[in-house]
Amino acid sequence: MASAAVQDPVEAFEAQRRRLGAVAYRLLGSVADAEDVLQEAWLRWQAADRTRVEDVRAYLTTVVTRLAYDLLGSARVRRESYHGEWLPEPLVADADHADSPDERAELGESVSLALLAVMEQLTPAERVAFVLHDLFSVGFPEVAVVLDRTPGATRQLASRARRKVRDGGHRGAVDPAEHRRAVRAFTAAAAGGDVRGLLAVLAPDVVWHADGGGVVSAAARPVLGAEKVARLVSGLVARLVSGRTGPATGTAAGVAVEAVVAPARVNGEPGLVWYSAPGRIGGVIAFTVANGRITRVDAVVNPEKLTHLV
């Protein structure tokens, strides 16, 4: 017998929408693709025989995951021909926002831009097993139903996915206060044109990744090493400030940069947003931090990946 909630299909679907969107986003790394999956899932939900549905959440999660699984193959082909580096579309919230326990339970574990980028190395099946089990605590028997495999096979998929994620350089989340301190130190040094300050907060092997999509200027390949990244940041700040107030020097540069750069939570972690014009986001910057220093920077400046933030 169907649950009572299924008697109202709109209410039943809307009750699961945020969680379903979170699953789809973590599987695809694209807000736009996730929204397309939700729209198709809604159409299928309308057409389904809901009298046979006993667990609405499990049923809709299966529908969304299978749709995303099918889309992952074609998405990978598109990304192979992408101009420069491909980075996920960022999620941005106010800097002081913190997910409540209920939100974490509903939306699953937060996933950084860096983790989403590393997850591009996974096969579609590995990604499904990793996301559902490790991020949403879905049991392997349920994951097996989604992938039409045995629980043992899905367990192996998740294990391979974790190994690839570790080999890809992803580290576990650090203390939020430590993360914030590193981002603040980076911001202050960049705003003041303080190269030494940048070198102090950047790990020696830091990597800068940027996604301009061929639409705006951005490094087409990763920039490796603290000195190169520091020079890159200094050059970007100088151009940013000169475009607004003239040559960037000392305190004047800091004031100008602070007027267009704001702290934010990027995919649940401390990051930055800069504005190309009042009210118009020109880029989102996420940071990976380890041992108090920044090990990776992800800068998304492709305007097509920022439209959902406007």
Provide structural commentary.
The chain has 310 residues and is α+β, with helices and mostly antiparallel strands. The protein is 54% helix and 16% strand. The protein has 12 helices and 7 strands. A 7-stranded mixed beta sheet has the order 1-4-5-6-7-2-3. Helix 11 (226-245) crosses helix 12 (250-260). It starts with 8 loop residues before the first helix and ends in a 10-residue tail after the last strand. Residues 245-255 have low confidence and may be disordered.
Keywords:
seven-stranded mixed β-sheet; 12 helices; 310 residues; alpha+beta; 54% helix
Extended strand count: 7
- Our count of helices gives 12
Q: Report helical residue fraction.
A: 40-55%
Which strand-content bin applies to the residues? 15-25%
- The overall pLDDT average reads 87
Question: In sequence order, what are the helices and strands, one letter per element?
Answer: HHHEHHHHHHHEEHHEEEE
Q: Tell me about the biggest sheet?
A: 7 strands, mixed
Name the strands of the widest sheet in spatial order: 1-4-5-6-7-2-3
What Rg do the Cα atoms give?
Answer: 21 Å
State the shape: elongated
Distance between the termini: 44 Å
| Uncertain residue ranges | 245-255
**Secondary structure category:** alpha+beta
